């Protein structure tokens, strides 16, 4: 066996094992350098895996050499590859981008521990999207959560601590709900392997424990994915985390939980539970609509820019959920491609806000008044990413909204209302993006405010890399769309 | 008879849980949760889960109680009078009622307890029982599943412990708005136990015995309940006891901080390294069979090494966490 | 004994919601964490209850005896991991609460909220 055959395991194991090594590095910026290199290597591994999946189709890797369902299986298809690319890419960009701000926020003494926790989040998120075993998934879910608590608690403001506490409580409730659901399904099927579960659950699909399990798993993962109305932990956790952590987690942490939810629903429940399709639609469509209307509205009134973006994420998760709940190939493709696009959009927006905060020292709306003159490149990036979030043509935001709205319109009159709600939420996005633009471009800089200058070159370069990706994949969206289409076909059980 | 005993224990568990929630004295609540864990452990034992019972007793009644007491010393022992927010109470009652009704509803179609024809006993598990001896050649099936068949989960478990360790060190490592006690002051606080004759003499005698027991649990896990995790918890208890009796400085001399850090990282690396060695020798990740010429000998070697890794990391993390809490004291 | 056939599962549900109630309703942060550990402990009972086989024994082949009925090893393995996850969460949670107490001088959620609104 050559090393390529082990890529599925290495994807997880490389960052996982580098974490303990990083804790032992006590020299200045070595922990950062080692983590960044590891993260970049993980990204390369993800690209290599994407190549393998493109040529050979879905892969399965038996950890320990024990065949599933007896051993733990890593199962990799187009959907997981898409997520792997998002996760490892976001981590790498956030690390390169965040060096300066992290140096200030973390301090040298804590750096080895902090960067080890970062690598653990990276490894565990990769594990979550590749494992084919329901309990192994719980283990990775918990590693990623525990390590994210550490990252968020490192935030410089004391409110970061309360945000972490809240996240610990709600995150643990979510993970435990998931565990109860898995336990009930295990009780009825005797297996933990997802594919095997899908085969065996049909026989017991009428029994109550299975139905209740579906509810518990959905609820648990909804908590982890910060789905409305159980999103309470998220805006503050992102707002008070160290800046680079906000960029990283906003781009991919909730996405991994959404991925698991989609995978569970479409692979295990939908094909086998008679009522599940109707329940998913009846339950999620209203929630999704309320999520993006409420999320966008709160964002309009929020004056802390990072919290504003957090609430905007609540809305964006609503879009994804809507695409999932409509259950058609077109809608699901839209939802999955939006997973990717939202990572680019939110990544770029958070990075722009961090650049501003880096110079002004604040993320409050009044503090950025007139900053566009001194920081033209940063603000230009914010505007491009903002347009992308609104869904203007030639940006990635347009691609996903185009798919989602088309999918809505397939449903006739009720679909028109959904599309209208989606457009209304986009209008609200115009309002809150405009508020920032107005303050930055048209308000004068207060007399007593300190002089500003453009963000450092390395930071600016990574910001613009992501911003240009927003345009690139908006103009030529064949890569994410191809993966999303293949993924939605597999999930809906149709031949790709 | 066992059945009635079991029912009695379960009812006791509910009563203790209610008492924990009702109690306004946090110290009492922590002590009661230690009892809760012990009752839980006895229950697990009745349900044939010896390994789990041992772990629950060591972790729930031991480690958790120590951690809670350490935290209470720093945060205060009394709950405020207005312990429940009125809005919170209704929300909590609503959510709890809904959850409970769902689970009662589901439970009526659960397989009966002890029913050998339940799906969990028909699929996957019989394969483990049938193949542990031929493939791994050890008598404890739980250890075989834990270390080999589902070794990837256990790797994850070690990293959970590792994450908690570096997390607590990172969170409590900052010296923000706080004076850390100097060595002498700390000594004065910690040394107090030295002046108590009985704990000192009894304790001194116990430390080596506990250590010996830890080694037994570590290396005998293949034959009887136990393994790296429980052994690590017990070994850490011995060293923490030593630190309490002899003063923190002596404890640190025994295991200085750099060594602890090395243990925390090294155990996890040992486990992962064994996995990578399997890849280099031509097997899948964590496929211990390739470690020796005879597959079952390879499994033995693999299990021995990974259990050692677990034990080292767990010991290191628990002692580090204890130090992190102990060194902190409010102004 | 039809009632006893489900008794463990009922106790699991009751313990779970006792923990859940404490987590949501209590304002003391330490008490919330204690509630959280009861909540997690209840789930251990769910898993371990399903591993029992009537007349079975712990899945260890004493003296090479493979003829007996053995209880299921798998839920036990899962719960060993879950116990570790639980204690890890508790440790991190307590560390955060200790820091909160240092920063705010209180571990009551409403006190802390009031201070943050003020600042």
From TrEMBL, chain A:
It is a multi-pass membrane protein. One of its GO terms (biological process) is ATP synthesis coupled electron transport. It is found in: Cell membrane; Membrane. GO terms for cellular component: plasma membrane. The keyword Cell membrane applies. GO terms for molecular function: NADH dehydrogenase (ubiquinone) activity. Residues 133-423 form the NADH:quinone oxidoreductase/Mrp antiporter transmembrane domain. It holds the Pfam family Proton_antipo_M. Its main location: membrane. The chain crosses the membrane at residues 6-25, 32-54, 74-98, 110-131, 137-155, 167-187, 207-226, 238-262, 282-301, 308-327, 339-358, 379-404, 416-434. Keywords: Cell membrane, Membrane, Transmembrane, Transmembrane helix, Ubiquinone. InterPro entries: CPA3_Na-H_Antiporter_D, NADH_UbQ_OxRdtase, ND/Mrp_TM. PANTHER family: NA(+)_H(+) ANTIPORTER SUBUNIT D1, NADH DEHYDROGENASE. Belongs to the CPA3 antiporters (TC 2.A.63) subunit D family. This is NADH:ubiquinone oxidoreductase subunit 5 (Chain L)/Multisubunit Na+/H+ antiporter, MnhA subunit.
UniProtKB/TrEMBL annotation, chain B:
GO terms for cellular component: plasma membrane. Residues 198-319 form the Na+/H+ antiporter MnhB subunit-related protein domain. Keywords: Cell membrane, Membrane, Transmembrane, Transmembrane helix. The chain crosses the membrane at residues 29-47, 54-75, 87-106, 158-176, 197-217, 229-246, 258-282, 302-326. Residues 118-172 form the MrpA C-terminal/MbhE domain. It comes from the Bacteria. It is a multi-pass membrane protein. It is found in: Cell membrane. Residues 11-75 form the MrpA C-terminal/MbhD domain. Belongs to the CPA3 antiporters (TC 2.A.63) subunit B family. PANTHER family: NA(+)/H(+) ANTIPORTER SUBUNIT B, NA(+)_H(+) ANTIPORTER SUBUNIT B. This is PH adaptation potassium efflux system protein B1, sodium-potassium/hydrogen antiporter subunit B1. It comes from Pseudohaliea rubra DSM 19751. The lineage of its organism: Bacteria, Pseudomonadati, Pseudomonadota, Gammaproteobacteria, Cellvibrionales.
From TrEMBL, chain C:
GO terms for cellular component: plasma membrane. It is a multi-pass membrane protein. It comes from the Bacteria. InterPro entries: CPA3_antiporter_subunitC (IPR050601), NUOK/Mnh_C1-like (IPR039428). Its main location: membrane. The chain crosses the membrane at residues 6-24, 33-50, 77-98. It is found in: Cell membrane. Keywords: Cell membrane, Membrane, Transmembrane, Transmembrane helix. Belongs to the CPA3 antiporters (TC 2.A.63) subunit C family. PANTHER family: ANTIPORTER SUBUNIT MNHC2-RELATED. This is PH adaptation potassium efflux system protein C, sodium-potassium/hydrogen antiporter subunit C. It comes from Pseudohaliea rubra DSM 19751.
